[in-house]
Automatic annotation (TrEMBL), chain A:
Listed SUPFAM superfamilies: Periplasmic binding protein-like II (SSF53850)
UniProt keyword annotations, A-Z: Signal
Protein name: Extracellular solute-binding protein family 1
InterPro entries: Bact_solute-bd_prot1, SBP
Signal peptide per UniProt: 1-21
Pfam (any one): SBP_bac_1
Organism: Actinosynnema mirum (strain ATCC 29888 / DSM 43827 / JCM 3225 / NBRC 14064 / NCIMB 13271 / NRRL B-12336 / IMRU 3971 / 101)
From TrEMBL, chain B:
Topological type in the membrane: Multi-pass membrane protein
Domain of life where this protein originates: Bacteria
Family classification: Belongs to the binding-protein-dependent transport system permease family.
GO biological process: transmembrane transport
Domain ABC transmembrane type-1 residues, every copy: 68-280
Localization terms from the record: Cell membrane
Primary location group: membrane
Protein name: Binding-protein-dependent transport systems inner membrane component
GO CC term (a single one): plasma membrane
Length: 447, 294
């Protein structure tokens, strides 16, 4: 009994210390150094390699990087920023966090820096990306490092063999028809890969874009939950049926990584997911390289339906080195860095999807010619504040930009994942989800 | 005078006592305090005293309630099955045979695999409907048109349990093997001479002797499996009704950033564990007493 009680206590200790971690501290190092907390994506690792020999050499500012996997970095950032400990001057945040953090007064607005820094060329940043990093007060709070949208990737060779032409802007109905036709085109090949793994950043991301284009929404402008509305239900039914009838095997466990695997291994003919997957599928060692075509995110009632996600740099309000921090952001998010990365690491490794000038560079287009234009079109076509057919209470395309969404989205995704597995119905899943969404709506109505 | 002497003896021990209280009890008190607050790190404007709201949320949340049930089912199944399998293996390993050391080492291996790596192994190498070993075997035996099983989707909880049983059977086997090898050989010999059958020896000598080892295995196993996180997180991401309590607390804490509700859930878990452990131990100890009487 004793050991059990201490087992429970140990869990409590862990939780309490985690809650307190991040308190205290305060920026260390000398005057001419900044601390940067960053996600460990390959593009960021490239940035880390190039910093000392370029940025530090030119400006004399030393950059201390802390690099962590996505889940850990989110956690650490939210703890450091929420306590305004000021341990990190700059952190990578996404367009989900930026408006929320800005509202909480955790970020330094960047407009003045942008105005003074003539070389930065804010106009060159893609409109939708810039908008997604602008808070409700109209100020810009973060600068993008790279951006992505979602689109439809398909096997051109399979379509050609079946005599199917993929429209440049397909509708979901067309995609479902094509999925039925190409299902089984090769032994063991399924029509389409769609995420079914629970998680607000897994299943919920593509599904919410489908809900948007079917005319549904999570919440009305005045915070009424709409999860059991006919449009939301129709979209979810469509998604669940499509993946059950013609989707990949093991769909309730398939996320981005599993679908990438399925597509690379020739187990599926189409895949609707992040544009950042294109570079991996067209990579030098990919078995499907050269066999792919790319179309815009399928639509029903809206003009476009792709999501928008960007990793961006923001400055913590408590930072005492905001000027140096801006110099770093200006360098890392600027045009000059793309040039540097392209020349020293290869043009396929340029952090893309954020500046229109990227898509005018001949060297870049040569390295990513099959998908570069579609990616630019997909990102430019997104409307982060108005992604559906009705006004929204909070920004976001594949998420709702409120703190409660990570939890709500994850819980709802677990229920829909169960519907994909066949252990519950869409009807049942959405009825239960509506109750959860109603609690969140009620809380926000009171504000 | 007497009191002063007592204190003189106690005083040097006080720092240690205070230290113990600080490291074991204060964090729990802090957790208790946080559990009474509305505290979502992403929403600092609404931070404040919430009374028992978080506890109400914990008890009315259907997801959390079903995760309590999942935790119970998962723990009981895994502990019982791995105890039975571990007992079987321990009995086999207790005999002398050629290569016993090598077999024992191989049997222990699953327990030495890093839990998250083991979960990944099961998810991808064994369960995957396309390239997993299980469906590969089905295909080998029945051909291309043979049965196609979606292991995780069709039997999510069993899938998680199987992976955990695979990891925990060696642990049970080790404990029970130690018990078997501490069994006095002369008693067994005497029973043989008295004409007892192998089953009778097992039932009336081995099993009673193993009782405390079985209990120890069961208790240690339960403590760890109640807290299991890796398998649920990796294999199903808490979907398909497999979210257990640790996963739900993790989700509330790290994904929802709701420190208040997560702390309340944590407190409920501790209280629940204490109640269950008290009852379980009472049952076990009364059994022991009966055993002693009979």
């Amino acid at each position: 009994m004793k050991s059990l009680r201490y087992g429970g206590l140990a869990a409590a200790v862990l939780m309490a210390t985690a809650a307190c971690a991040g308190a205290g501290g305060g920026g260390g190092g000398n005057e001419n150094s900044i601390n940067v907390l960053m996600v460990n994506n390959p593009q960021m690792e490239d940035l880390q390699k190039l910093t000392a020999d370029n940025f530090t050499k030119d400006t004399g500012i030393t950059v201390n990087f802390t690099v962590l996997p996505e889940n850990d970095v989110r956690d650490k950032i939210s703890q450091d920023f929420s306590s305004q400990a000021g341990q990190y001057d700059v952190a990578t945040i996404s367009n989900y966090e930026t408006p929320i953090y800005a509202k909480n007064n955790w970020l330094t607005p960047l407009d003045e820096y942008v105005a003074k820094d003539s070389g930065f060329a804010q106009d060159d940043v893609l409109e939708s990306v810039r908008q997604s990093l602008t808070a409700a007060d109209g100020k810009v709070y973060a600068q993008p490092f790279y951006g992505e949208s979602s689109f439809l990737m398909y096997r051109k060779d399979i379509m050609d063999a079946k005599g199917i032409t993929m429209p440049e802007k397909p509708t979901w109905q067309q995609v479902a028809d094509i999925a039925a036709q190409v299902d089984g085109a090769e032994p063991g090949m399924k029509g389409i890969c769609l995420r079914g793994q629970p998680g607000w950043g897994q299943l919920m991301a593509p599904l919410t874009t489908v809900v948007n284009t079917f005319g549904g929404t999570w919440f009305t402008k005045d915070w009424q939950a709409q999860v059991n509305s006919p449009e939301f239900k129709e979209a979810t039914d469509f998604y669940v049926n499509l993946v059950r009838d013609h989707g990949e095997n093991g769909a309730p466990q398939a996320g981005f990584a599993e679908c990438l695997n399925n597509m690379t291994q020739g187990k599926v003919a189409m895949w609707y997911d992040a544009t950042s997957a294109a570079g991996l599928l067209e990579g030098a060692d990919s078995p499907v390289k050269g066999k792919l075509g790319f179309a815009q995110a399928p639509v029903v009632k809206t003009d476009s339906s792709g999501w928008l996600y960007t990793w961006a740099f923001g400055i913590q309000k408590a930072s005492k080195k905001a000027d140096n921090a801006w110099k770093f952001i200006s360098w890392a998010s600027g045009k000059g860095y793309e040039e540097l990365a392209g020349k020293s690491l290869g043009w396929s490794r340029v952090p893309d999807g954020k500046r229109s000038s990227t898509y005018a560079r001949p060297e870049y287009l040569e390295a990513s010619g099959t998908f570069a234009k579609q990616v630019e079109a997909a990102i430019s076509g997104t409307k982060p504040t108005d992604p559906g057919v009705q006004p929204r209470p909070a920004p976001g395309i594949q998420f709702v930009g409120i703190p409660e969404f990570t939890d709500l989205g994850t819980q709802v995704s677990q229920k829909i994942s169960a519907a994909i597995a066949g252990s519950t119905t869409v009807e049942q899943a959405l009825t239960e989800s509506q109750a959860l969404a109603e609690t969140v709506a009620e809380k926000n109505r009171g504000k | 005078m007497k009191g002063a002497a007592r204190w003189a003896r106690r005083a040097p021990l006080l720092p240690a006592l205070i230290f113990t209280i600080v490291v074991t009890q204060l964090p729990f008190v802090a957790t208790l305090g946080i559990s009474l607050m509305e505290w979502n790190s992403l929403d600092p404007e609404n931070r404040g005293f919430a009374g028992l709201d978080n506890y109400v949320a914990v008890f009315t949340d259907s997801g959390l309630r079903s995760s309590v049930w999942t935790t119970i089912v998962l723990t009981v199944t895994v502990v019982l099955v791995s105890l039975i399998l571990g007992l079987g293996l321990a009995l086999l390993l207790d005999r002398k045979f050629f290569g016993r050391g090598a077999v024992r080492t191989m049997l222990i291996a699953p327990f030495l695999v890093v839990p998250v790596a083991a979960a990944l192994l099961w998810k991808h190498a064994l369960y995957n409907p396309d390239y997993g070993l299980f469906n590969g075997l089905l295909k080998m035996v029945f051909g291309e048109d043979g049965p196609h099983v979606e292991w995780i989707s069709d039997m999510p909880l069993v899938a998680v349990e199987a992976a955990l049983i695979w990891q925990w059977t060696p642990f049970m086997m080790l404990i029970l093997l130690a018990g078997l090898q501490s069994r006095p050989p002369d008693a067994v010999e005497a029973a043989h001479i008295d004409g007892a059958s192998s089953f009778q020896i097992f039932r009336y000598l081995t099993l009673p002797h193993l009782r405390q080892y079985l209990e120890l295995g069961g208790l240690l196993g339960s403590i760890y499996i109640v807290q299991n996180f890796d398998a649920v997180f990796t294999i199903t991401s808490g979907g398909l009704g497999t979210a257990n309590l640790p996963y739900s607390v993790y989700q509330t804490f790290f994904q929802a950033h709701d420190y208040g509700r997560a702390s309340a859930a944590g407190v409920v878990v501790v209280v629940g564990s204490i109640i269950i452990a008290t009852f379980a131990l009472r049952v076990v100890s009364s059994l022991l007493r009966e055993e002693a009487r009979s």
